[in-house]
Amino acid sequence: MNKKEQLAEVHNKWLKNCKCELKILATQGVPGDGNPNSEIVFIGEAPGKNEDIEGRPFVGAAGKFLNEMLADINLRREDIYITNVVKYRPPNNRDPLPKEVESCAEWLKDELEIIKPKLIIFLGRHALEHFFPNEKISQVHGKILKKKTKIGNTFFALYHPAAALYDGSMRDILIEDFKKIPRVLEKIGN
């Protein structure tokens, strides 16, 4: 079975078996999406309204901004894999609660174990805190983080694209941090 088939199997399993309480309120689960052979996995926080409707991550305004930043570093959505720590939309797009993150954690771990990315990029504090609970996004954005895990060893933290849409001062920071991604990939090598 190839990675695409393995991911489809994982998503089907967790769409049926995930115990996240948000499942009751959401239109549908939003599994990860993209290239299963990508060297890069982006991890966001949780689906928003558009994602809940379409069943794909990062398809709203934050997703459009993400696509623009990818184009700036000569990547396309088809080149990367993108997912969230929580697979169901929190009501009114509120922050995901720790128990919601925990209830989706095995699903995320299964995705990452199949893909085995060289680089895991956190989009926002919830993704960062899931893997590095003692770090603050304001202190580590734009920096490489190292940690030996079964799912990867090299991580990179960015502000969430939605934060830049709401706070213009963060936009330039996020764009500059994003432009570091090719150098980070080069640095970690093959």
TrEMBL record:
Family matches, as InterPro entries? UDG_Type-4/5, Ura-DNA_glyco_family4, Uracil-DNA_glycosylase-like, Uracil-DNA_glycosylase-like_sf
Reaction(s) catalysed by this chain, per the record, are: Hydrolyzes single-stranded DNA or mismatched double-stranded DNA and polynucleotides, releasing free uracil
Ordered alphabetically, the record's keywords are:
4Fe-4S, DNA damage, DNA repair, Hydrolase, Iron, Iron-sulfur, Metal-binding
Q: Name one Pfam family in it.
A: UDG
The EC number(s) given in the record are 3.2.2.27
Q: Residue limits of the Uracil-DNA glycosylase-like domain?
A: 31-179
Sorted alphabetically, the Gene Ontology BP terms of this entry are: DNA repair
**Enzyme class (EC, first level):** hydrolase
Which SUPFAM superfamilies does the entry link to?
Uracil-DNA glycosylase-like
The molecular function GO annotations come to: 4 iron, 4 sulfur cluster binding; metal ion binding; uracil DNA N-glycosylase activity
As for family, the record states: Belongs to the uracil-DNA glycosylase (UDG) superfamily. Type 4 (UDGa) family.
Can you say what this protein is called? Type-4 uracil-DNA glycosylase
From which organism does this entry originate?
Candidatus Nomurabacteria bacterium RIFCSPLOWO2_01_FULL_39_17
